[in-house]
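Q: I have 446 residues here and want to know how they pack in 3D. Can you give me a structure?
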Amino acid sequence: MTMDKFIKPFNPKLPQTAEEVPNKNSLNSYLPIRTKGNDFDIKAVIGLVLQGLLRKKIEGYEYEEFVSDCQSAFQEKLGEEAFWEVLHEMYFDNKDIFSVSPELLLFRAQKDQVTAGDTRIASMFTNLLQSMRVEEFDAKLNFIEREILATLRNKMKAESSVHVSEEPYLPYLSQSFRDDLKFLSSRPKYLLSEIESFLSFYAFTYTAQLSLALTDWRSGEEPVAKPLYFIMDHERASNERTHIRNHGYKLFSESATRLFPMLSMLELLQPGIGDKKVYKLPLWKISKGIQESSYEHLKSELENFARAFKSQRELDTSLDESELALDWLANIMKLAMAQFSVGERFNINKKYVSEVEKYLASHFIQGRGRSGRVLVLNQDYIILLTNLVVGEKDKLRFHELIAAFRQRGIFVDKQTEQELIKFYERIGNVERMSDSGDAVYVRKTI
């Protein structure tokens, strides 16, 4: 879908009076966290993501039925009751069967087994996926496992379409997500072992980079990755490391306060056909639409909405008078933030940021005494990221690896770069051609 659909004319159908402005803020796109009810089951989320990737689903099929069907299939072929007992203990007693192939994880995505929280979290990844699809996973299975998988496939149904409700806010990160998932999909066993960490990483880096990108909308250009600094989890975080101090957790925490105010306002700005909301657009794309629009009343409608919103929320925020539609969009976003600066809404936003940190960021935040909180990557995440970045290549120059980390929202200072090289040398996946950084190559660990 292209922006052309919206720019001739660009007409977002905004409320024009205080009575028309909703008295509550609602957030239904671009971030799955709400002020409460955010618990989710990562196994269900993984199942839903794989359902979207495979375009296949399982419905109304109990685990006990599956076990019984497998038993029938094996007894028909092997005819020995004792052999089934061995298989049952190997694969089914402790549900070890779910480590055989990613397709079996579709079991976790059945409608009666997922919650609203599961669905919201999964939709974040589905929207990053866009139209990406994998036909099936080429897992190297033995005869027994192939038979088990064949039994399950007989119960699979086609998922005709995947609901993608929004254009990517961060196209560069959506592309990296698809590239990395494609690499994992070509190695099903590795995918099974790392899919939880993979989704955990992208949930955080997407949220962090989204919070940093929200104010950079005026040009109408696609966002690029913005510096956000991490250290390895064993490193010291001294105050002399200015990037870590000023452009790490502190920056994320401050920028996260914009998420709920600006994204809930973005809901009201979405273009519509009549009163029907359509495919959601990021704020920078709406800015582009305004700049390219031929709709002659756009400035006045944006101005009327700004004044109506200010009145409904009883704000004393000063507005910049202008004849430019884009300046009135800036006024609207100023009001979006202002309403959360005092009173109960201030507490609501504080609670929202706390929920974001708890559910999407906790694996990447550590307290370091007098140095305060810092953003960290543990060794498992570093190995996973390294393997994803090197991808199908045999090896990658270290500086190219660091550039690819940045493309995924991970920035490190010179001190952490040296720690990374030491770490790679300890695990034996580095080639040092000379003491120069340009001559250091990093290999995959798989």
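Q: Anything worth noting?
A: The two ends are 38 Å apart (CA to CA). The longest helix spans residues 188-213.
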